[in-house]
Specification:
This protein has helices at residues 7-17, 24-36, 39-55, 90-97, 126-135, 149-162, 187-195; strands spanning 57-58, 65-66, 80-87, 104-108, 140-143, 168-171. It is of the alpha/beta class. The protein has 2 domains: 3-55, Helicase, Ruva Protein, domain 3 (Orthogonal Bundle); 65-195, Dna Topoisomerase Vi A Subunit, Chain: A, domain 2, CATH 3.40.1360.10. The strands form 2 sheets. The chain has a 4-stranded parallel sheet.
Length: 200
């Protein structure tokens, strides 16, 4: 009997294959790695997945992921609550936090407006953002959605909602990556770099 016909192993491989970016061979490697773990480590691994799934939820304020009622950023009194950086996904928060230059708060949309995929404004966390702005003394909203058609459209939609409220709305500058040559940059990247230029 081939080992691949062992039902629990096949099921484990199938589960790993469902993860984004994981192909059949990588799924098999991961499954065999799990099988080689001592029983207590395998149980810790399984418990970590269960705990993450059952204990992590949206922050009541910014909709980022947390295991508490309010996330560590929103509960940090040293943060500038008058500035909100709007991102598409919780992973974007981690990326921005790595810069160690962020002193304000976030709002996670959990998606972008994408009519082709059936995602409208009511399907992402825009209402929650508007509610925050009405209840807080917000002076600026930084739109940090990805530089895609959907990301730009979402940023523009939110900007139109906020402008009548007297809120300053800014957009992250996009352009030439550090260390890159101009000759290899495409027209859209160059255009964005010119639009986002700063005085020296």
């Amino acid at each position: 009997m081939a080992l691949y016909n062992v039902a629990p192993l096949s099921k484990l491989i199938e589960q790993f294959e469902r993860l984004p970016g994981i192909g059949r061979k990588t799924a098999q490697r991961l499954a065999y790695y799990i099988l080689d773990l001592p029983q207590n480590e395998a149980e810790e691994f399984a418990d970590a997945i269960k705990d993450a799934h059952s204990k992590i939820h949206y922050c009541n304020i910014c909709c980022n992921l947390t295991d508490k009622e309010i996330c560590s950023v929103c509960s940090d009194n040293s943060r500038d609550k008058s500035v909100i950086c709007v991102v598409e996904d919780p992973r974007n928060v981690f990326s921005l936090e790595r810069t160690q230059e962020i002193t304000y708060t976030y709002h996670v949309l959990h998606g972008v407006i994408s009519p082709l995929n059936g995602v409208g404004p009511d399907d992402i966390k825009i209402k929650e953002l508007l509610s925050r702005i009405q209840n807080q003394n917000v002076k600026e909203v930084i739109m940090a959605t990805n530089p895609t058609t959907e990301g730009d459209a979402t940023a523009m939609y939110i900007s139109r909602l906020l402008k009548p409220l007297g809120i300053k709305v800014t957009r992250l500058a996009y352009g030439i990556p550090v260390g890159a040559d101009l000759e290899y940059a495409d027209e859209v990247t160059l255009s964005r770099a010119l639009q986002g230029r700063m005085e020296m």
